[in-house]
Design a protein that fits this description.
Low-confidence stretches of chain A: 94-98
Oligomer: heterodimer
Radius of gyration of chain B: 22 Å
Radius of gyration of chain A: 15 Å
Largest sheet of chain A: 3 strands, antiparallel
Order of helices and strands of chain A: HEHHEEH
Strand content of chain B: under 5%
Number of helices of chain A: 4
Strand content of chain A: 5-15%
Low-confidence stretches of chain B: none
Structural class of chain A: alpha+beta
Helix content of chain B: over 70%
Order of helices and strands of chain B: HHHHHH
Strand order of the largest sheet of chain A: 1-3-2
Number of strands of chain B: 0
């Protein structure tokens, strides 16, 4: 059976966090906290979603002086449709073998 | 001070076109309330940079290593079965990365041995070691079939793991 891209539990958790965020720009720290993903797992996922056109990103000016600008992310319309489709597929009950 | 130096090393590890993602991780680490948490981000950035570097150059390294191994196996054994097995393995391994898809996998898996044989025949001093006679029509037929075999394997495996065909 063909492997479905972005269907790992980690990707689903991330897509779900974005959907819960309701189109708000999200930062890595809050996404890591919400999904429980470690930064080394979270960012490769973000990069893949971004490359696929499911995410848009922008640099936000620092909240406090002396702090670096932060990179923020949110789902594109395509990403939102994809996330909804993935979560709907995930929610369907699986086949029983017995 | 050490942390700033480490971040620079991590930035150098990542491919240039993905460096902004490491910068983003550094900015997140700087935004954390506790310094102890920044170690997790430092470690995560190292891991991410290595993964990005591998996905950037790993394909070419892997393909080159497989092509070299294929020639070595062919040189040492000279039999058709190990060569065909190796072509199959190469096509499967390359396509399993799901990046450059079928055509590069076909070129490496199916093209390496025909090219190696062709080049070996150009240099007569290699004949006793690699190619015992000039290629005849049946040899060329076999060598022409190898890319087809590689393509079939790459195509089938790409369908199996859900890669888009390019």
């Amino acid at each position: 059976m063909p492997r479905r891209p972005h269907s790992s539990p980690q990707a689903i958790a991330l897509l779900s966090a974005f959907l819960d965020g309701d189109s708000q720009w999200r930062h890595g720290v809050s996404l890591a906290r919400e999904t429980g993903l470690k930064p080394g797992t979270l960012y490769p996922l973000l990069i893949r979603l971004d490359s696929a056109g499911y995410l848009e990103s922008r640099w936000q000016p620092p909240e406090k002086a002396g702090r670096p600008a932060r990179h923020a992310y949110r789902l594109t319309a395509l990403g939102r449709a994809f996330a909804l489709e993935r979560l709907a597929t995930r929610a369907k009950p699986g086949l029983r073998l017995a | 001070m050490i942390s700033a130096w480490l971040w620079r090393v991590i930035m150098a590890l990542a491919p240039a076109d993905k460096a902004q993602w490491i910068t983003a991780m550094r900015a997140e680490a700087a935004a954390l309330p506790q310094d102890s948490d920044s170690v997790i981000w430092l470690r995560g950035a190292t891991w991410a940079a290595l993964r990005l570097r591998w996905s950037d150059t790993g394909y070419a390294t892997e393909a080159a290593a497989l092509a070299a191994a294929m020639i070595a196996v062919d040189w040492l054994s000279g039999a058709a079965l190990p060569a065909i097995l190796f072509i199959a393995i190469t096509a499967l391994v390359i396509i399993s990365r799901c990046r450059h898809h079928v055509w590069p996998a076909t070129v490496v898996a199916g093209g390496t041995l025909p090219l190696a044989h062709y080049l070996a025949n150009l240099d007569r001093s290699l004949w006793p070691y690699y190619q015992f006679k000039p290629l005849d029509r049946s040899d060329w037929l076999i060598l022409a079939l190898l890319p087809l075999l590689a393509f079939a394997i790459a195509f089938a495996s790409s369908r199996l793991i859900g890669c888009r065909i390019k």
